[in-house]
Amino acid sequence: MTLFHGLSAFPITPATPNGQIIADDLAQLLLRLKAAQVNSVGLLGSTGTYAYLDRAARQKAVSIAAETLAGDVSLIVRWVPCAPMLPWRWRRMQPRRVRMVC
């Protein structure tokens, strides 16, 4: 499998005004994209919302996406800075086809 092929979708990251991820809304968006058979999902980076989220909110969004897509759709994550994502959560997500783009 190549990193980029086919249709990549870039959903918004639903969040409250105080920066809390709206988990159910994000999961529903991702399930719709999965049902539409997109080849990959680009999370945190295209729509601008990610810039206003703290580290915990970003980690939550990536965790929700990895669980929802369950390895059936490649997940491309823009993470700034990249280094904090490398601990245990990142290692747990790698088998699920999560890609980190810095």
Kindly describe this structure.
With 102 residues, this protein is an alpha/beta fold. The chain has one domain (8-101). It has 3 helices and 4 strands. Helix 1 links the parallel strand 1 and strand 2. Helix 1 (23-35) packs parallel to helix 2 (55-69).
What is the subunit arrangement here? single chain
Proportion of beta-strand residues: 5-15%
Strand segment tally: 4
Order of helices and strands: EHEHEHE
Radius of gyration: 12 Å
- Termini Cα gap: 20 Å
Query: Largest sheet, described in full?
Result: 4 strands, parallel
Number of helices: 3
Query: Which geometry do the CA atoms define?
Result: globular
- Look at the structure and give the mean pLDDT: 79
The chain-level structural class is: alpha/beta
Taking strands numbered 1, 2, ... along the chain, how are they ordered across the largest sheet? 1-2-3-4
Poorly predicted regions: 82-91
Number of domains: 1
Helicity range: 25-40%
Give me the secondary-structure topology.
Elements: E1 8-9, H1 23-35, E2 40-43, H2 55-69, E3 74-78, H3 88-93, E4 98-101
Parallel strand pairs: 1-2, 2-3, 3-4
How is this structure best summarized?
The chain is of the alpha/beta class and 102 residues long.
